[in-house]
Amino acid sequence: MKQKIISIIYASFIIFIAASVIYFPQTVLSASKRGLEMWAGVVFPSLLPFFIVAELFIAFGVVHFIGVLCEPFMRPLFNVPGVGGFVWVMGMASGYPSGAKFTARLRQEGQLSQIEAERLVSFTNSSNPLFIIGAVAIGFFHDQQLGILLALTHYISNFFVGICMRFYKKNEREHYIREPFSIKRAFQKLHQTRMKDKRPFGKILGDAVIHSIQTLLLIGGFIILFSVLINIIQEVKLALFFSHFIGVILNFADLPKELAIPVLSGLFEITLGAHEIALVEKSSMLMKAIVMSFILAFNGMSVQAQVASILAETDIRFRPYFFARLIHGLISCIVVIVLFQPIYQQKSAIHTFSQQGVNYLESSLDLLQATGIPLTLMALVIYFFLMFQQKN
């Protein structure tokens, strides 16, 4: 009976989406176009190099090398192997869903157990500085210092999420040998891994490009889908219905109810939510920072759907990741309140120190938006060429 009800719910939802697409063709078209532009102009060109490099790192044993070096602090802090250090850094540098992608890849390689992978993905799938400072803070709020506050809040609270999740399934002990720090042993691991992979360099490079672009095509589909969904929800006035419940929660947390609809948008798609939060006038910057930090930590349903799809290729369960997002959201709200006075309002020393980095991120985002679509088209041409070569 339960499965029959679920089948009816699924069918009803799909019929509702299909009917909405037919009834609101202009809304769907504009939403699809906006999602496609964001994917082709920013997401694809910014993530593709990281994905390809990560695949090459795994193939040539660099991840094993990093794992041996990071083991002495990754195991005591987060109860994951040293290779988690590679995922952590790459996840912060490239942004979501990279942490999930790299964790799933290492799980498929057998370098992580199921429990270790579930711990690792819970705190490594974070936003990147380019998006937080460049797109959100400067692009929507026109406030560089807010970007520094949000970035620090995001990564500090994510660190505490990792500390909390180290106790996840702590009674299920994994069998591992604690070995001392050794550069020689790290090089030996690197060499052994490279020798095991019998593929020639050209084949390794081609596979890295193909696997990376396939993942990015999947991500692009989710971005466009959720861009359409949030616009349909707004068109049929469901957003107003759900915003009443969010308004009650905001009122309980002493936050202005005007943020209810922007929060709902952000829970579906971060970029749209950030844009709407920035436009709210009846709210202080502290209130906006609290809500924005929660949305960045929660990831949005769009990113969570991407993560769920990536993890579905492995035995890594999605539930611990979702639970960690709620923890991350709560911790980030506390951290942003603590850091707001020293980081945002007292701008002198920190502002001067970070100005150069902020300017670099801003110029990088401008360059990406200017060249992103041509780079995406060129990469897709290479992808189809490599796929054609493989089939022949």
In short:
The chain contains 17 helices and no strands.
Features:
membrane; 17 helices; Sporulation integral membrane protein YlbJ; mainly alpha; single chain; 0% strand; transmembrane helix; 392 residues
Task: Provide a descriptive summary of the structure in words.
The protein has helices at 2-23, 25-59, 62-78, 83-94, 98-108, 114-124, 129-141, 144-165, 183-196, 201-235, 238-252, 260-268, 270-279, 285-298, 300-311, 319-345, 348-391. It is mainly alpha-helical. It starts with a helix and ends with a helix.
Element layout with pairings:
Layout: H1 2-23, H2 25-59, H3 62-78, H4 83-94, H5 98-108, H6 114-124, H7 129-141, H8 144-165, H9 183-196, H10 201-235, H11 238-252, H12 260-268, H13 270-279, H14 285-298, H15 300-311, H16 319-345, H17 348-391
Tally of distinct domains = 1
Percentage of residues in strands: under 5%
Assembly level: single chain
Distance between the termini: 49 Å
Q: How many β-strand runs?
A: 0
**Which outline best applies?**
globular
Which stretches of 5+ consecutive residues score pLDDT under 50? none
Largest sheet: none
How many helical elements? 17
Task: Return Rg in Å.
Answer: 22 Å
Mean of pLDDT: 83
Helix content: over 70%
Q: Which class best fits the helix and strand makeup?
A: mainly alpha
Organism: Gracilibacillus dipsosauri
Protein name: Sporulation integral membrane protein YlbJ
InterPro entries: Gate_dom (IPR011642), Spore_IM_YlbJ (IPR014226)
Keywords: Membrane, Transmembrane, Transmembrane helix
